[in-house]
Every structure is written in C-alpha cells, then in structure tokens.
Design goal:
By secondary structure, the protein is of the alpha/beta class. 40% of the residues lie in helices and 16% in strands.
C-alpha cells in the first residue's frame, strides 16, 4: 500500500488557505499547517513556525526533522498582501520568506511537488494580453506586485533543483455562492470608501476589464492542480480572463445596485458613483488632496490609489494552460457578474466584517 501524502501548508489562516484546508483534509493525506500562533482544525496539525526564519522556518528541531522525512507536497500561500506595505517589509516576507520555504523544501527527502502562490499582477504596468508563460514586468504599481515578481524570480531559479510550479491568482474577493468575505483587502476597503462617498474618482477607462475570482474557485483549482495534475515548471493564471471579466463600467453600476439592495436608505444620500478619468486628471486630483489638509480624504485616497493605478494599465490574462489542465472537471471560474454583487452586499450587511451594522 503506498505511503500517504503529507502536505505542508503555509498561509493556512489566510483567505485562500482557510478555503483550501478542508479540501486537503478530505483527501488521503496528512496536513501540516505552519503558523506563528496557536491553531487547530479537523484532520490537520498546526506546527509553530514562521517563514521569515531562515533556519528550519523557525520550527522546533523535532518538527523540522519529522517534516523532512514525511512531506510530499508543499503549498506556499503565506504572503504580505497589503498593497501599502513598505517595500522592504514586503520583500522580507514575500521574497526572503519564499527563499526560506524553498530552502527547507530542498531538504525534504520525499517532496514531489512545491506550489508557490503568486499574483497575475506581477505583470505590473504592462498592458494587453498577459500570457501564462511570460515572466513578470519591470515596473509595478505597488510593493505587493514588485515583491511577488521578485519572488517569482527566486522560484524560477529553484525550478532547476525542485519540482516547483507557480500559481498566479487574480484578485480574490469573496465566495461565489454566499458572497462571504473572510479576509478584507484593498478592493473591499475601496468599496467601503465608495459607500461613504469618499471615492470621487478612479483612473482608467469605462471599457477596461476588471478581473476578479471567488475564493472557492481559487482553492478548488489550486487543490486540483497541485494534488491531482501537478506539472513541474508550469505557471498558471487562476483568473477570469477576457471572457469572464466585467468592464469597469459594469462593476460600478452593479456596486450601486448592490448598495441599494442591501441598504435602500443609501440611495437617499445621493452619492455619485466614482468618475472614471484619465491618468493626468487622477494624478492632479491626488496631488490636490495631498495639499488640501483634509486628513480623512487623504487617507481615503491613499487607500484607493494603492491599487487604483492598476486600472490605468488595461490588460487581460491568458488562462490557456489553466483551462486545459482543468478540462473535464467541474472547476470553472464563474463570470464576475454572477458573484460580484453578492460580495458587495455581504460587505455592507456585515459592515465590512465589523458586525451586522451596516445601516446608515
């Protein structure tokens, strides 16, 4: 009888990791979750450690030794995902942390698959169709994109000695069925500012496609590709692509409708949807706000522009390799219009995770 698989998961307490963990736990494998704090989950063992520790990921010697003997799969999802994080900190987690994980993977006797989670936005300020086989860009909108591109360079070098593949995710915003959000990111914060009337404009074009995916698709796809269809050296785009994305115009309209569905009183405030303007106009706006002395608006603009500038670089993401690998399964990214409104309503109804008190 073949030995059971043993999976080491980093980032198991994040949005993607939490959705992935039950899928791993239902397969014929043992699951070990690296965590800095205390944790627990059915059919999984939480191991204390930290990817920023270069020596054995900060684990106790006994845990490290056990994993070296047993681990067959490593799924590395831990990351600094804040767009506003200082570049040095983003690098310490996303680049140096990944290097530490890969160094540890190199000491695991039975490892057959190493999966590194990344982002489609390693493409940075490039425009047009972004292919899965292409490397990242050379200019970026924020520290998250840049550090992830640098992380991919580290992973690419490690492919020479490790069975490793890269999984670039689009923006994960919530659950496709319930709309539930377990980890709020820059998109959700921007929605809150729009709801409060503090997001008067964004750069871009109304026809720009915006690529979102739900967390349940992201987790199911990652689980299948790593545990059942692993291909060393491959790079996948787990994204909506050109056929399942919405235009910025459609998203803004649906945002307004979702606000009104979940809180009819919101309509009475007569908050205008953000104007979509050119880059010169938006740059002038951000400079004006910076000089205005309006602290509330300054904070709002800073929160939005960490990702809003990406809208000024229209692109679509090729998903050919991903679609081919998932062919014959039920794992398909839903169209953005089929779940985006549910996510917006969930944000409002739960007061963006602060409790069911989203009323005006």
């Amino acid at each position: 009888m073949p030995a059971r698989n043993a999976v080491l998961l980093t980032g198991g307490t994040g949005a993607l990791g939490r959705e992935l963990l039950p899928l791993l736990s239902t397969t014929d494998c043992d699951v070990f979750v690296l965590t800095r704090g205390e944790g627990g989950a059915p059919d999984a063992r939480f191991v204390h450690g930290d990817i920023t520790h270069a020596v054995d990921l900060g684990m106790r010697q006994t845990d490290a030794a056990m994993l070296r003997e047993r681990v067959t799969h490593i799924i590395h999802c831990a990351a600094e995902t804040r767009f506003t994080a200082p570049l040095a900190h983003a690098r310490a987690v996303n680049v140096d942390g990944t290097r530490a994980v890969l160094d540890f993977a190199g000491t695991c006797r039975a490892v057959r698959a190493v999966a590194c989670a990344s982002t489609v936005y390693v493409s940075g300020t490039r425009t047009g169709v972004i292919l899965e086989r292409e490397p990242g860009g050379c200019d970026w909108v924020n520290s998250y994109e840049q550090s992830k591109a640098e992380m991919e360079a580290v992973a690419g070098e490690a492919m020479a000695t490790l069975p490793l593949s890269i999984y670039r995710f689009s923006t994960i915003i919530g659950h496709s069925t319930t709309g539930a959000v377990t980890s709020f990111n820059a998109i959700h914060h921007a929605l809150r500012l729009f709801y409060q009337g503090l997001a008067p404009m964004v750069p871009g074009d109304l026809r720009t496609l915006v690529d979102f995916v739900p967390v349940d698709f992201a987790a199911r796809a990652l689980h299948y590709l790593v545990m059942h269809r692993f291909e060393p050296g491959a790079t996948y785009h787990l994204a909506a692509g050109s056929t399942r994305s919405c235009t910025l115009d459609e998203l803004l309209d649906e945002t307004v409708r979702a606000f009104e569905r979940s809180r009819p009183a919101w309509r009475k405030r007569r908050i205008e949807r953000p104007a979509v303007v050119g880059t010169d106009t938006y740059a002038l706006f951000t400079r004006s706000v910076a000089e205005s002395g309006n602290v509330l608006l300054q904070r709002a603009v800073q929160a939005v522009q960490a990702f809003a500038w990406q809208l000024a670089y229209p692109k679509t993401f090729d998903t050919s390799a991903t679609d081919a690998a998932l062919a014959g399964t039920s794992i398909v990214a839903p169209h953005c219009r089929d779940f985006y409104g549910k996510v917006v309503e969930s944000c409002v109804i739960t007061n963006w995770g602060g409790g069911a008190d989203g009323a005006l």
